[in-house]
Amino acid sequence: MKTLILASASPRRRELLALTGIPFIVDPSEYPEDLSLQLEPPALARHLSREKAKAVAGKYRHGVIIAADTIVVAGRSVLGKPRSKSEAKEMLRALSGKAHTVITGYTVLDTGTGGYVSKAVATKVWFKRLTDEEINAYVKTGEPLDKAGAYAIQGLGSLIVKKIEGDYFNVIGLPLSDLAESLKKFGIRIL
User: Fold this and answer.
1) Range name among 79-83, 117-121, 132-136, 172-176 with the lowest pLDDT average
2) For residue 178, with 0-12 CB atoms within 10 Å meaning exposed, 13-18 middle and 19 or more buried, which class applies?
3) For the chain, what percent of residues have pLDDT higher than 70?
4) Cα-Cα-Cα-Cα dihedral of 146, 151, 154, 157, to 10°?
5) In whole angstroms, what is the distance from residue 10 CA to residue 147 CA?
6) Which one, of 46, 34, 24, lies nearest residue 104 by Cα?
7) Cβ atoms 29, 56 nearer than 8 A
8) Which end of the chain is more exposed for a tag (fewer CB within 10 A), N or C?
């Protein structure tokens, strides 16, 4: 069997992929996430994941690379990871009391054949209305600082999410059900 490589430094993606029980190694991609590219959000997420996969692919002759990128879309704004506590607070204020869309683009790339699949999965998320006190307290925990949209639905961020429509694991950063279907095309079956 070909080596499965997760091209991500995200501990959340590592934990999610581990849930499948399939063996894999982790080799984080160094490709920079450029959210300023003039692409529609699903195309942007797919592009970033594809470039991340390609950045790692050259190291493996017989491997299957999984790379992903998660963005948050609020209105016409694309939100990545906040660069500071003040930016995290701005993001949370913008999302407060509203719906937004979490898009995870992922790419599965076979290094032997060069064949790949790139997809984007969208999940709609509604936040409860947040007070400044709640926003400040949440940002003070540090949890929002390395998360797209400045929250972690699987952590304390669960307290600010009112409801979701779509794949829960997609919001965390890896749409497992969709990914499992794509892996079948590369001879990797989870069930």
Assistant:
1) 79-83
2) middle
3) 99
4) 140
5) 10
6) 46
7) yes
8) C
